[in-house]
Known about the structure:
Elements: E1 5-10, H1 14-24, E2 29-35, H2 39-49, E3 56-57, H3 61-66, E4 72-75, H4 82-86, E5 95-99, H5 106-117, E6 123-126, H6 133-143, E7 150-158, H7 173-176, H8 179-182, H9 185-195, E8 199-207, E9 227-234, E10 239-245, E11 255-261, E12 264-270, E13 274-279, E14 290-293, H10 298-302, H11 309-321, H12 331-350, E15 354-355, H13 356-360
Parallel strand pairs: 1-2, 1-4, 2-3, 4-5, 5-6, 7-10
Antiparallel strand pairs: 7-11, 8-9, 8-15, 9-10, 11-12, 12-13, 13-14
Helix pairs in contact: 1-2, 5-12, 9-12
Amino acid sequence: MGSKVRYGMIGTGMMGVEHIxxxxxxxxxxxTAICDPTPTSLDWARTASDGWSSPKAYDSPRxxxxxxxxxxxxxxxxxxxxxxxxxxxxxxxxxxxxxxxLATTVADARWIxxxxxxxxxxxxxAMEYRFMPPAAKFxxxxxxxxxxxxxxxxxxxxxxxxxxxxxxxxxxxxNTGGTMVEKCCHFFDLMRLIVRSxxxxxxxxxxMDVNHLDERYGGETPDIIDNSYTIVDFExxxxxxxxxxxxxxxxxxxxxITAVGDKARLDVLIPExxxxxxxxxxxxxxxxxxxxxxxxxxxxxxxxxxHGSTYYQHQYFNAAARGEGPVIVTAEDGLRAVEIGxxxxxxxxxxxxxxxxxxxxx
Length: 362
């Protein structure tokens, strides 16, 4: 590989453009190729790369890879296309970063994970929430024992509704895997990472109660969950909870993560960037709460909508493509997050506890 890593972008809609914006500020990155069936999306990619790179458009993922013009490929096409995009290129000698969720079904995610195992080149699942600096510092401190023995983990995301995407594909669970797969795979990935164990069972209570109720697409009403509570039990005895609301636009912090151990509680607030440490002090004793601010590079913040995480993820992926660092988020990680999300979707529909063993048999 030369002094630059040459990237191809498959899918140049909203998330594809965010990747381009972050590649522009990644040392040694060059966008040489793009692929998308929608001319408007291709124009967005050209505008985003103007003055930096001049990518050539290709008619198919295979043609893009066969061009010999790319060292690494980013897949940012709609969720339901991931397997179809990957089938003709997964054995090609290029590094691959595939957006989350890895796939919309457990079966497709398992196929991808199985094929990725034998690759000589990097395969990376884009779980950028791991790389938000406040979240990364939080994880480091939990793993370092600051809360003692971790027993409870809670994640709250109170945010805005799903944005409009090309062709409105994200309004239907058949295209996304459902909200608990599409959106919440990030958080199920964080749970596994923080807890350092595998999920055993899931209970999710959720529905579409506020958003999209008056929308119609080809006569169909959207069917995506806009609020839920999800409890996940892990093999090591830790339990975790996700509190999701997609009609809480006015919340001061979009994400709040809390770890409670036998010695202390630790919170991280995003985008505020605060770590709040609350050690146990005993009944009626004075609190000893301390706060720490975790800064985020202004360049990273300006390059995307995910609190700098896409930028930091690209620095690690670029290192992996150069052979200078490991793959941090594997296809297997992507599969496990899809499994938990699929279990949550099934649980919400059928109003019952769903085991991961059941989902893995699908």
